Amino acid sequence: MTDSDIVKKINELRKIRNAVILAHNYVAGEVQDVADFVGDSLELSIKAAATQAPVIVFCGVSFMAETAKLLAPRSTVLLPEVSAGCPMADMASAEAVRNLRKLHPDAVFVAYVNTTAAVKAEVDICCTSANAEKIVAAIPEDKEIVFLPDQNLGGNVMKNLNRKMILFPGYCPTHHRIEPAQLEAMRAQYPNAPIVVHPECPVEVTSLADAALSTGGMLKFVRESGAKQIIIGTESGIIHRLRKENPDKEFIALAPAPRCSNMKKISLTSVLKSLETMQTPVELPQALIERARLPIDRMLEKSK
Ligand code: 13P
Ligand code: SF4
After folding, report:
1. What is the value of pTM for the model shown?
2. What pLDDT is attached to residue 303?
3. Structural domains in the chain (count)
4. Is pLDDT of 304 > 80?
5. Is 49 within the bounds of a domain?
6. Which mutation among 41, 263, 264, 266 tests ligand 2's pocket best, with the greatest number of atoms within 8 A of CB?
7. Of 27, 55, 110, 135, which one has the greatest count of Cβ atoms within 10 A?
8. CATH number reported for the structural domain that contains residue 46 in this entry
């Protein structure tokens, strides 16, 4: 089957199933193109919370599909490729969070949305890379904060807010391996091009960039920038959307281009199969849904 045959079948089936297709900015371009909505983690959470669709096909990784399920518990949320996980989310277990609670009983626990539902059930509030600073800044100054699982997002928030937090030692393998030398090489080659990176990059890297933004923030930065060439320091799937929305600008990925193999597991074929077979639904116990939803609701309330 050609891609256009697959897209035709997806379009037939999405109507029959009354399904909405949500996709993260990192998934393959052809998958973004069949989605009803493409966005960053916060935007996708807001969409999931608002949808009335009985079926959501979530093109992203498992913690994102779980979050959609928490926010749309009556919908069937399908993850087209069940093995599409997030190694960073898997670094923090619910047990590790409970143990940290014993050590810091009075602390506010802030979890990046890149966590499992079981971990969300143990924390006070969630954040995404788009609102992490706002969420942390709203916590009273005298409160101790434990931030998990991303030591880099946490480190960037600490630096920007000049506020101390206890950081869980997790990291995103895709962004953690980006090195200052990669930015320096780009700066030397394209001295007039702004460099935008993701705050999952280490502080030594974000310090060299012109901006450290969520994927949604990067799309806005690019839209508003007068620069004709922009260096992109995040998973290179976002370049598809950047090019599509800004045909007059040139986007240059760091070398080597950052890649998240899990995001790339979602293909047109797996989206079609998911609609045909209704696989694989996110299934969470009701009690877990109720507990894990609370910190996300608190985040959405504070992000308004
Ligand atoms: P955004 O929320 O910025 O889209 O990031 C999600 C993610 O997984 C980054 O690696
Ligand atoms: Fe997880 Fe990193 Fe992939 Fe985002 S890019 S899904 S944080 S491994």
Report:
1. 0.97
2. 83
3. 3
4. no
5. yes
6. 263
7. 27
8. 3.40.50.10800
